[in-house]
Design goal:
17 strands, four-stranded antiparallel beta sheet, 4 domains, six-stranded antiparallel beta sheet, single chain, alpha+beta
């Protein structure tokens, strides 16, 4: 019997997919996935098909010993890593063991070894990767593995029963078998997805707090940065966070212009370096907005931000300012540093990816609740030190900055607002300054900010913000630099949300203003960077078509929300909460209808309840009946029982459901030409044993006919007719007119030959 099994190819493909998944989670990967792919192709061709490259028995032993030595070396190196990773070297060992088995003479147990090792590779890869691509590769691996197990068990069953495969059978049954196996794989994946979503869970997702991946941190978002450091990420299209915005009525909300996602506050400047001084402020404030009467009241109009943060600062999180409420998705209250209004993680939440919700005022000019507003008396030491910090300018820069402003010949004024507006117009004048990501220095002997103002007159947002903050400070206006993000890529395919990327990183200024309209000191947001030039630079970072980018962002959002971070809170928000609300609405409607009737029996409620029950019964019975007649649970080529593990499970489940469904049993169709064959052979003494299958009966009849010399010419008739019988009864085929005529001719020839033998 020639082997035409497809499971070795699908198994090799699954091994390659598992190797790629393992490779995706490595920090410094060696390109071994491509080597494994080449080995798999070579093994399928030279070892399995042509049988010309089979390793002698001693070669796998030596190769396995060498792989074990490398494994011990990798484990020893992992002891020096921070943190140590003992699982990844084990994954490497599995990879090389599978490569050795590729070229080994195959036995069934070797296939089981490869299946088990590839599964363990996927488990190790899951500890090291949380990318969307890993989810796609995982789905592909499961499909390939389901296919492999189904075909492998079918082949093993056929070998054990010595079942013959008809060489002249048409391609239709094989095509149906392929389609049926794919349908089975899809059905199993859908059922697994359903159970993954609905099974109750507690706490946070395990992938959110991976023991190996604690989150990535962006350059330019630390407590101490060098001027120009933020520009290193402005050419990256990598995602930082995804934000869903809603108004007070929970309707999707899209603000005008480009929103500013406030983050890290920089207060101290020295020789081209900004620093967030912590000497005045505690690491974190008390949980912000305690649950008492001192909490800020909820305004009539506000913005709710549901943010999924992937990477940025170790402590600071991002949001629209000003905020009045904030908590993580697990219910932990966020913290706020009162001295600069920075929002931080709770103490019990580790660094890494975070999901949180922020409520902000609709009016961005509103004061930030509970932030120190510099309104204390001058005798307050904290107030005095804050003014010193936000007014600090290096001594070598004070006079050059004042001379620079004097050369602008601005109208004399003592009002901060007038000076600020004049400096903003000057920095945003396209005839003087331009936006660029080029951070080259012209004169290294002077301060980088002064070099930007006098010589270069071009740079990115950090230089514009730093120049404005220092110019204001040199003239007695307290100011601070804010590092965060501006704008984002909006996606409206499935719900409105914005994807903020590294290229959207931005710096701006907050200055203390006192105006006639607002006589009390307040922080005013100022963005001196030329807006149009910056937008053009951001648009040039990625030339991905908008449709493809939105599809990619939507897929990543679904992967992050419903797989990686699908914890009890997400499950409640996505499944149990809506179902509970609909059930409560239905019960309320029934109760309301019953209340209107004034008591007694309510016909409306009774009819409604009866209709719901009837629909459930009808849908359940229909699904069960369709499950019972689906032909992919049966095999072709005469197998009278479901093939493989999946078929056995389907058959057992069908038997259990038959007691409840009580649907009419759908018998397989009777085949007239097979009945005629049995009757013809029985009339001439060739009887069918009760335990024999039709194929076995045909083989026994052919042997008896061959023993009789006059009947040897028709010995092939019973097997040929039974082969067509299997196609019609179990495969669902319809014979063509030509095949029907052939069967009639064969039956007539067999009948005439048996009749002649009886006469003699």
């Amino acid at each position: 019997m020639k082997r035409t099994n497809s499971y070795p190819i699908s198994l090799y493909a699954a091994v390659c997919v598992a190797t790629f998944c393992l490779w995706m989670g490595e920090d410094d990967p060696w390109p071994y996935p491509w080597v494994v792919v080449l080995f798999a192709i070579a093994a399928a061709a030279f070892t399995d098909h042509w049988n010309v490259l089979v390793l002698p028995r001693w070669v796998p032993v030596l190769a396995g010993a060498a792989a074990l030595v490398f494994f011990i070396r990798d484990e020893a190196r992992s002891l020096l890593a921070d943190p140590p990773d003992f699982a990844l070297p084990l994954g490497h060992l599995f990879v090389w063991c599978q490569v050795i088995l590729f070229f080994h003479r195959k036995a069934p147990r070797f296939y089981w070894y490869m299946i088990l090792m590839s599964f363990l590779e996927m488990v190790i890869a899951a500890l090291h990767s949380n990318q969307l691509a890993f989810g796609v590769m995982t789905a592909a691996y499961l499909m390939l593995m389901l296919w492999t197990l189904t075909r492998f068990n079918s082949a093993r069953m056929a070998e054990r029963t010595a079942m013959r495969v008809a060489t002249e059978a048409p391609l239709a049954p094989a095509r149906r078998s392929v389609i049926a196996t794919i349908a089975t794989c899809v059905a199993v994946l859908l059922v697994g997805l359903f159970f993954f979503l609905v099974i109750p869970r507690q706490g946070a997702s395990a992938w959110t707090h991976s023991q190996y991946r604690s989150g990535q941190y962006l350059s330019g978002f630390d407590d101490r940065i060098q001027l120009g450091q933020l520009g290193t990420i402005l050419e990256s299209d990598d995602e930082v966070m995804t934000v869903h915005l809603f108004d007070e009525a929970s309707r999707p909300y899209r603000p005008r212009g480009e929103p500013l996602w406030r983050g890290v506050i920089m207060s101290h400047y020295e020789a081209g370096r900004w620093e967030r001084r912590a000497d005045l402020q505690p690491a974190k404030a008390s949980p912000w907005f305690p649950r008492d009467a001192g909490a800020s009241p909820t305004p009539e109009q506000f913005i709710r931000q549901e943010i999924s943060l992937k990477m940025a600062h170790r402590e600071v999180v991002f949001a629209l300012r000003p905020c009045f409420k904030g908590n993580t998705r697990n219910g932990d209250l966020l913290a706020m540093t009162r001295l600069d209004g920075t929002i931080a993680r709770p103490d019990n939440v580790s660094s890494g990816p975070l999901q949180y919700t922020i409520h902000s005022y609709l009016d961005a000019s509103s004061p930030q609740p509970q932030e120190y507003l510099l309104t204390r008396v001058l005798g307050d030491p904290i107030h005095r030190r804050l003014l010193d910090q936000y007014g600090q300018v290096p001594d070598t820069l004070v006079e050059p900055l004042r001379e620079y402003v004097a050369q602008l010949k601005l109208p004399p004024t003592n009002e901060r607002a007038v000076l600020t507006a004049a400096l903003m117009n000057h920095l945003q004048d396209p005839a003087i300054f331009d936006y660029t990501l080029n951070a080259s220095v012209v004169d290294r002997s002077i301060d980088p900010v002064l070099d930007f103002l006098i010589n270069r007159k071009e740079g990115h947002c950090e230089y514009f913000a730093s120049a404005l903050a220092l110019l204001l400070r040199a003239h007695g206006v307290p100011a601070r630099v804010v590092n965060g993000f501006k704008g984002g890529d909006w996606n409206e395919l499935v719900g409105q949300f914005v994807v903020v990327r590294q290229k959207h990183a931005h710096s701006w200024v907050e200055a203390v203003m006192v105006t006639r309209e607002q006589p009390q000191p307040h922080w005013l947001t100022l963005d001196p960077t030329p807006g149009q030039s910056r937008q053009r630079a951001v648009a040039q970072v990625s030339r991905t078509p908008a449709v493809w980018r939105e599809l990619r962002d939507m897929s990543r959002q679904m992967w992050t929300t419903y797989v990686l971070n699908f914890n009890s809170g997400e499950q409640e928000a996505a499944i149990y909460g809506p179902v509970r609300m609909q059930a409560q609405a239905l019960v309320g409607f029934v109760r309301g209808t019953a209340g209107e009737s004034g008591g007694g029996f309510n016909w409306v409620a009774a009819v409604l309840a009866s209709g719901v029950v009837a629909v459930l019964i009808f849908v359940s019975r229909t699904v069960i009946r369709r499950f019972r007649i689906w032909k992919f649970v049966w095999a072709e080529n005469g197998q009278e029982r479901p093939p493989g593990l999946l078929g056995l499970v389907a058959e057992k489940l069908r038997q259990l459901l038959m007691y409840w469904s009580r649907a009419p049993v759908l018998a397989r169709p009777r085949v007239a030409f097979y009945d005629q064959l049995v009757q013809t052979l029985a009339r001439h003494g060739v009887h069918k044993r009760p335990a024999a299958t039709p194929l076995q009966y045909a083989d026994e009849a052919a042997e008896e006919l061959e023993l009789a010399a006059p009947l040897a010419a028709v010995a092939k008739v019973p097997p040929a007719i039974v082969q067509r019988f299997y196609r019609v009864r179990f495969g669902g085929d319809t014979l063509s007119p030509h095949e029907s005529n052939e069967i009639d001719v064969m039956l007539r020839t067999l009948t005439e030959a048996l009749a002649k033998r009886s006469k003699h």
